[in-house]
## 1
Amino acid sequence: MQLGLIGLGKMGGFMAERLVRGGHEVVANARTAESVKKAEAHGAKPAYDLPSLCGALATPRIIWLMVPAGDAVSRVIEDLLPMLSKGDILIDGGNSYYKDSVKRSAYLAGKGIRFMDCGTSGGVWGLRNGYCLMIGGDRDLFERVEPIFRTLAPPDGYALMGPAGAGHLVKMVHNGVEYGMMQAYAEGFDILKASPYGLDMGKISHLWNQGSVVKSWLLELAERAFAEDPDLGKIQGYVEDSGEGRWTIFEAMERDVPAPVITLSLFERFHSRKPDSFAAKVLAALRNQFGGHAVRTK
């Protein structure tokens, strides 16, 4: 199939390459000419601006967006609209908030443009392993563009979740679960690191993946990280969040669903950004005041 791909970052660039390998005609666009040239080197057709991209696509156009959630998606959509025709298809493959996708679907439908949301998981490994695709939209539209999903995903790695918004909802919760899993692994290795046995974290992460109930791809990545830097001494313990964990917690609160593990895992990320937190200072001061416990001074 022919499609336009806007956004050639960590995932978008590899997606373009995988699609070309799968026999699709990809017209690639990004903010930087360097990214477009890299996609061209892998077989994509370059488009250095949106008019060029739209002009290179036969109608009805299929355009896949891989841009950051929020205002960036809205800006690209508004920039594209004057160049689109009724019946064209926009697929948001980024990590947009699912309620935004519901609104965008209704907004675009009023202008004759079809919309799908596609939660995409696989990271930088998707080129080799394929991407897990969680898709929202109309069934007829899903079947129409299914060859694209089939190429991007591994076997059984894509599915229609429901109407517009459902794909991004499932991806949002997927990332919330990921927060909790990563936090559990991090705490476990922290306990092991503090033991008196001088344990080998890389060896343990490899061992746990051999038939253990906690085996996972995340543990494979942990083993890889420990092989590159056994003590992780080159890494600062500062952990960002990209929004999906927060949205998952908001959803849990709105639906009255208890989600303590995911919630605490997000708060631990906040904690990682305050190595000398004021809250910890207050705790130390209170212990000193009521019990005379010693405090460490700078």
## 2
Amino acid sequence: MENAKTTKIHAATVDEVITTVIMARVTDFFGFFVYAIASAVVFPRLFFPTFDPVTGTLMSFAIFPLAFLARPVGGALGNFIQIKVGQAPRIAIALMILGSSTVAIGLLPSFESIGWLAPVLLAGLRIAQGIGLGSAWDGITLQLQNAAPKERQGLYGMVPQLGGPIGFCVAASLFYVLTGFLTDEEFINYGWRFAFFGVMAVNVVSLFARLRLLTADFGPDKLPPKPAPFLPMIRKQWRPILISAFMPLASYALFHMVTVFPLAYALLYSSDEISYILMLQLIGGMLCVFATIASGFFSDIYGRPKILGLCTLMIPLLCLTIQTLDGNPWIYIIFGFTLLGLAFGQSSAIAPARFEPEYRFSGGAVSANLSWIVGAAFAPLVGLSLTVQFGLGASAIYLMSGAIVTAYVLYARYGFDAFRIGQSAPRK
């Protein structure tokens, strides 16, 4: 166990907490988006070359959700490590697993070199990524919310979510440079690997920042979050877990449908250059950052349910624009990223307040993992499968499914107040 008497404690400033939270989340999302982009533009050709491009991409996307399915295993492993030896070793081991598995993907030989062993190894390393990310759940989001003034809960709650669009922009910018300045042969043979090698460097920086934050003093009433026994938590908190998992599902359904799906569609069905799509997504990602920040301000005025309710009502409009991926992809991409920022900005902060204090750490982890599995893990596979079978418009069904679930849970919890623009909804 960690010995509090021998650990050097320092006072944590709000700026330090915010910086560390953003850095940690950018690191997590950067590694995952490096893989996500490669799963659309590299892996079908490198690991499934014996299939036609559509089938190869579908097989690549079939490996994609393995990391999300492995996250609960990683969370359980992380809780075990933390109980036995403390939180600092948990974070160090988790980031080592996450960083090493991501770099190892960048070193994988192609199908032409080792045959079917190549995609098998890819699947194994994808699972390791999920275990590492699941184990890295450290509760710093809860610490940030503890440090937040009551009138700024929404603004502080959106800070961890900035890691999503910023992490995507970093990953997309690397691939934009690699695809734009290398020939196609150079990119497929070795260029794509450099993006994976960069993950370890940012993991090291994130590790030192997180470890410093673990020794921070948040005051006598701001104790660090601790894991709770799993089965008692499920028995007592199953309802908050389900509500916290399904209420923000619309934002998770959006997540990969505006990042990964347009890349795959452009490669398979459009004449647009992949570097052009990446440029549009970089613009969208920057707008997503500002929209995420805006969600924090709006949340403090109207409440988080109101923000989610408004975004849920706008998703059908986004679905109507999905056909613009043929010819005018900027319309769907820019609108989609902006809407993602507003919705995703409060998707994490809406969960912890629903749990009893002793279950907030573990309950938040379980509900977040469930949201990612149900809402985001299968989005590229389902979206592309529907497109192959029924056309591009059918992929909007996936987006609508998330909106329908979120709308139902919001209505069941708050009634029509969550969807009325002129009124404030409850803040929890």
